[in-house]
Specification:
Chain lengths: 560, 560
């Protein structure tokens, strides 16, 4: 037996201090030998500023991988990419059983199969009162409303007490698809046993002061909009927002329009929703090939790409034809969505392209045509009050969200801590104590390999993008003397410099001058020669075009 | 004498179909021999998505340069960078006299001097009724309110009629600094002569449905906020928003705080405003060196960098010390500004850094601490109604703004046209007719040289950022046979591929295999050899790391 006391720990590896790539760990047992469960394995998306050319960003789970033998289970709260997107990529390093509800499970199995992993590691769990026993943990799925079907909070019972992990949620009494928010159920959770020790709580909308609105409030305005549109009606929203797809499709049907879904992700989601039984009585659909033959005023498209993604249906329609259909003057295009910060430029480009086509573009009109999937500040307070946990740890937010949520919690008498990625929190004593700081970070899926955020690969790409790239080739003969002149190749710099000469010539000229005078000490020393060539290239480039490029030198020694 | 009739033309070269780099041309005279005036020479700013490493973006003014002998004058409406920022760079190609009001003139002279151009080409013009005669044009400056001092609309009288070029404006009866909006004056402009033929009108805020609010409404809330802040108070806004600087500084003074301005641009603006007489009774300031000795609760900083610019004071404070001062827990940081679309990520990064420091960050709170400098939809209608022009041409807006503004104008009985950059509009007949499409576009200041947007330089940089760059070096001996193996250098790609080998080795291995078997037809033909090497590099890279890099080949022929 250990002489160390058992403890209950919480460790965010992703999603705490950022919105995206959620990954949380809970542990129970003697220090250093805790049995572990993982909640969510999400991704986040690259941008040109910091991660050009990268395909996906995932949490660095090295800490978990080193302790893979202690992992009892993986739980996935819901099927948004920032909660499930890393499953196919990261599961092979963890190899634990995966638990989730049916709709999420359908998509989890696809994620695993996409990466050649066995789909049968996914176990479908029914909601509370069903319990998954995972080592010292007893876990129940509590249905919550969110912008995707079957999102769940988790009740995690441990010998040290009950933890509620909220997942992503909102309070919606009429969510169109899925279970309504049930305050009695939440009150009951707080009444069982010793009540709630700790609540780990979504912080996304902590800065939204008004109570959140129900998905059901959109039906009427959307129906009116779709009915009054003169030409073709096109609407985009997140593919996974199945309730919104239904509201939109219902509006189309009510207006006598044939409804056509476009975009791979959207079809995949609707199929998963129908297969898992969460979506019933969805209006019948027409295929894009049929749609082309339907008069525009009797047609409604529901398409992917609300965030301006370049390859999605919205962007393709804004550029021209997509699957035989194109936008025309008099059509209406609705963004039944909000722009995620950072995606503004892409979306605005699309709106302007559509404007040039004479299409009327309509945004969410301050919430008339879109509601958020997250609980606003008063809703969060409502949940605090229902669960009245001893400890509140804000999660799923940037630092500013976590801090604001913690301030709110403190003002209401809860013990709180702003716990960001890598901060291991000991919950055992009834108030949060920082136990340890774990090294965390991000890894990138780049093409089909993983690179670390700190490997320098992406840094080199950014530098080439900012500064251009010059390559110098020099051949030295058997005697160590330059064989001919050095060659320069330039990529990403102005062709002609200030002197009026081509930049390449200016660089080569100075390199020749240098080589004519260089003594053998330098010519024989690879490092010194490399330094000298590099310095000359940067100096000439600075003089000629005002930029210091990245430089690669290739020195071939024929005697080598 | 010409047998062609005189005509009045309008030609936007920048700013119509985008917000930024404003440049408009008016011409009067026989077709092809019109005398010309230029209104504004602005810039726009690069972003990592489309213009990595670029310093500034300017309109392509080739059309004007080819007709430089026909330019009578350049008018600058106000000193925002998107109206004046190109002056120093583009003036040398135009060399016409520059007319503007005093404050704008002070900054125009600096812009010219910065680029080694003569500052004495700037003529200071007093507002209407003063008139500048420029060939067939008679031009008056009409003071308008905007977020910078001395913004002006232009009345451009021509033999074909009166044109009003609105510049950037809002309707503000109490603008804190500068002249209040005077409806009588505008009514008068419409009453003179034959009234207004055409209004070229700011469209920025056409989508804002409520009437705009006055700068003066900010004084009270700002004073309350500054007075109630417990620690150091720091506020950022656009450096050129001199009225806001005054409101903020007044709030600081009223709260008993010493006020300190930080950031080069801000000092330059205040100096220009004081020198030109637009700014009087500005609170006395302390220098940053003095500020460090003042108790935090008695100090207020007003700093640059509201858009998250990496080198500005705000970003530097968010990273640590700036000029000896740093933020601490309990300080308050106010963004008395709005985020321009595209700058969200940078600003959010700063807010989170400050949150980590324990600083309370406050945004504009839905307009409580910031008002826009542009006229909203009802204000635009007000101006339409005062001037009742025959023709309305929306300008200063993306396509969606121009289109919406044109729709509004049409609904009110004006002749309109969505005239984007390069569309020459003939106004002579009293309704807008597209006369010609001019080739326009953008040029980039990249380091210290100009490159065309279509030159491929920036495209190459973007490709390297997305795909990485591989350089292949091959030496062929006098017999045309490879001398040793080909070398590869890799930049911006994962070091190790799927096979577990270093990527460089994998590439070099396949290149060696190819060269061993390559026949002389290929080896002797530079193009074929280049193609083959390139194809192999891409293929190996795709297999190993899942990316197709940019490839540069250097083949040295010793017999060459």
């Amino acid at each position: 037996m250990s002489n160390k006391k058992d403890r209950l720990i919480y460790l965010p590896l992703g999603g705490a201090g950022e919105i995206g790539m959620n990954c949380y760990v809970y542990g129970y047992g003697p220090e250093g030998r805790e049995r572990l469960i993982v909640v969510d394995l999400g991704v986040t998306f690259p941008d040109m500023d910091t991660t050009p050319g990268v395909d996906l960003i995932m949490p660095d789970i090295s800490w978990l991988v080193e302790r893979a033998d202690r992992i009892e289970a993986i739980f996935i709260t819901h099927a948004h990419e920032d909660h499930i997107g890393g499953l196919g990529h990261l599961w092979p390093q963890l190899k634990a059983q995966v638990y989730c509800r049916r709709f999420t499970g359908t998509l989890a199995a696809m994620k695993l199969e996409d990466r050649g992993q066995p789909a049968n590691v996914v176990s479908i769990v029914e909601p509370r009162p069903d319990v998954v026993e995972a080592g010292p943990f007893k876990v129940q799925f509590v249905p919550v409303s969110h912008s995707i079907p079957e999102s769940s909070a988790l009740i995690i019972d441990t010998p040290a007490g009950r933890v509620v992990h909220s997942g992503d949620f909102k309070l919606d009494g009429s969510p169109v698809v899925g279970e309504a928010f049930d305050p009695k159920e939440w009150h009951g959770i707080a009444q069982e046993g010793n009540g709630v020790l700790a609540l780990m709580c979504d912080s996304t909308n902590i800065f939204s002061p008004a109570p959140g609105r129900s998905e059901a409030t959109l039906a009427e305005p959307l129906a009116e909009l779709v009915a009054s549109a003169p030409g073709m009606m096109v609407a985009t929203t997140f593919a996974s927002n199945v309730a919104r797809l239904k509201t939109l499709a219902d509006a189309g049907q009510a207006a006598g329009r044939s409804v056509c879904l476009m975009g791979r992700a959207m079809k995949r989601m609707v199929t998963a929703a129908v297969d898992s039984g969460v979506l019933t009585d969805f209006p019948s659909l027409v295929a894009p090939e049929q749609a082309a033959d339907i008069p525009r005023e009797h047609l409604m498209l529901i398409v992917t790409g609300s965030q301006g993604e370049r390859r999605a249906a919205t962007a393709q329609l804004a550029r021209g034809k997509y699957l035989g259909l194109s936008l025309k003057e008099g059509d209406t295009f609705l963004f039944s969505s909000k722009v995620i910060p950072g995606n503004e430029r892409g979306v605005i480009r699309i709106v302007n392209n559509m404007s040039e086509m004479g299409v009327d573009v309509i945004d969410d009109r301050g919430g008339l045509y879109h509601v958020s999937g997250h609980a606003n500040r008063p809703d969060l307070e409502g949940v605090h009050d229902l669960l009245h946990p001893k400890i509140l740890i804000p999660m799923h937010g940037e630092h500013r969200h976590l801090r604001e949520h913690a301030k709110l919690g403190e003002s209401k008498g809860m013990s709180t801590e702003v716990a960001t990625n890598g901060m291991m929190i000991d919950l055992t004593t009834g108030y949060p104590q920082v136990a340890e700081y774990i090294e965390t970070g991000r890894v990138y899926l780049d093409g089909n390999v993983m690179v670390g955020a700190m490997d320098g690969v992406i840094r080199d790409r950014i530098r080439m993008a900012l500064n251009g790239h010059v390559m110098v080739t020099l051949i030295l003969d058997e005697a160590g003397e330059p064989l001919g002149d050095a060659w320069a190749e330039v990529m990403g710099l102005a062709e002609t410099g200030k002197s009026g000469r081509p930049l390449v010539e200016a660089i080569e000229g100075d390199l020749t001058e240098f080589l004519d005078r260089a003594d053998q000490k330098v010519l024989r020393d690879d490092d010194k020669l490399d330094d000298a060539l590099r310095r000359i290239v940067r100096q000439v480039s600075m003089e000629e075009v005002g930029k210091k490029p990245e430089v690669t030198t290739v020195v071939s020694r024929l005697d080598g």
